[in-house]
Design brief:
The protein is an alpha/beta fold and about 375 residues long. It is about 60% helix and about 10% strand. It has one domain: P-loop containing nucleotide triphosphate hydrolases (Rossmann fold, 3-Layer(aba) Sandwich), CATH 3.40.50. Helix 15 links the parallel strand 6 and strand 7. Helix 2 crosses helix 18 and helix 8 packs across helix 9. The chain starts with a helix and ends with a helix.
Length: about 375
């Protein structure tokens, strides 16, 4: 079993990644709950707009865009706290603009620009960058000493890792610098070198859209350094030693394949995997193999009840051994000592009691 307790004790950021439907959101909540009960002040933030985290924490009214504290009697003695929130992409982007703008007039020019309003809410990559920005802001918030991030499905989670670097490279790109030229000189350059291109673009997207784009980039003047510095800080935080990545899966070929892919990406980027948690696995049903149980069933011939019992144990152990075979490729990438397994429960998890049940299996497996 992976030493997940050490992971939550040593980390200041934990990023939970995995494909959809594997219990990733619940796992993030369990890690936050356990850390809080051990005296840490934790905030769990979900990028997924679905209600799963709110449901797991028993919040009937859902999550807000600002951290809200969860009542935890079990954490009071240790001084721990558990908070939770959901990412609000547009509000986070607006906050960045206000932070880096030179004056209120520049803020108004940007926030009322139609291109900006569309980009803040829908542009590809914006959500991932704002998630990274939110992580940075929460990490610097004195109320918290651990941030647990529940990401979208794996491939999008990689966008979350890459988004700050993509923004930094874009801000250094020649095309961006051209659009950032002051109005008069910019028009001269664009008029002499790129007017045919602009006319062609205008015919495709519409002259109003093109005008909005030019106006937006020129209104952005003076803010690029602040955005670039912030992006660099986020990249450094994501790659810091105190930031840990937890890959979540279930014992199925498709989710394990996705977990293997993501783990390989983390390893290639030099980040690594702090823990791999495989949910909904078959329990062991005692020591021994399926073959041992089958042999015991044969030895019990004449006692029908005992034969039926050992035959059932053999079937269940066979399922577990098949699951172990499915999980093996993930172990090959991250190592057996990084993998923790959680058993399939007899009910869904939708409240703090359910989270505590899972925590018992993850952190006190001998009990």
């Amino acid at each position: 079993m992976a030493d997940v307790q050490r992971l939550i004790d040593a980390s200041t950021v934990i990023v939970c990644c995995g494909s959809g439907g594997v219990g990733k959101t619940t796992t993030a909540a369990v890690l936050g709950l356990e850390a809080a009960e051990h005296g840490r002040k934790v905030v769990v933030v979900t990028i997924d707009p679905a209600r799963r985290l709110a449901d797991a924490l028993g919040l009937e009214d859902g999550l807000a865009a600002e951290p809200q504290r969860i009542d935890l009697n079990s954490a009071q003695a240790s001084g721990g706290e558990l908070w939770a929130m959901m990412l609000d992409t547009e509000a986070t982007f607006d906050g960045l603009v206000r932070r880096h703008a030179g004056d209120p007039e520049q803020v108004d020019r940007i926030l009322t620009n139609p291109l900006y309003r569309n980009m803040a809410g829908a542009m590809s990559g914006t959500q991932e960058y704002m998630a990274a920005e939110t992580l940075h802001a929460l990490h610097g918030d004195d109320r918290f000493d651990l941030v647990v991030v529940d990401t979208p499905p794996s491939r999008n989670a990689l966008d979350f890792l890459e988004a700050p670097g993509v923004l930094a490279r874009f801000l250094d790109h020649r095309a961006f610098k051209l659009l950032m030229l002051p109005t008069k000189s910019g028009l001269k350059v664009l008029g002499s070198a790129a007017q045919p291109i602009l006319k062609a673009i205008g015919r495709v997207v519409g002259s109003d859209v093109l005008a909005d784009a030019v106006a937006f980039f020129q209104a952005f003047a003076g803010m690029e350094t602040g955005f670039r510095d912030r992006a660099d800080e986020v990249v450094a935080l994501i790659r810091a030693a105190e930031t840990s990545f937890v890959v979540v899966a279930t014992p199925r070929h498709d989710t394990i394949d996705e977990a293997v892919w993501f783990a390989q990406q983390l390893v290639e980027q030099g980040v690594g995997v702090g823990a791999a948690i495989v949910n909904r696995t078959q329990p062991g049903f005692g020591a021994g193999t399926a073959a041992d149980a089958t042999a015991a069933a044969r030895a019990a011939v004449g006692n029908d009840d005992l034969v039926a019992l050992w035959t059932n144990v053999a079937e269940l152990r066979t399922l577990r051994e098949r699951e172990r075979h499915v999980i093996a490729p993930l172990a090959d990438v991250v190592g057996n000592d990084v993998i923790a397994t959680l058993p399939l429960l007899d009910r869904d998890v939708h409240d703090l009691a359910g989270l505590q049940t899972i925590a018992g299996h993850l952190f006190d497996p001998a009990e």
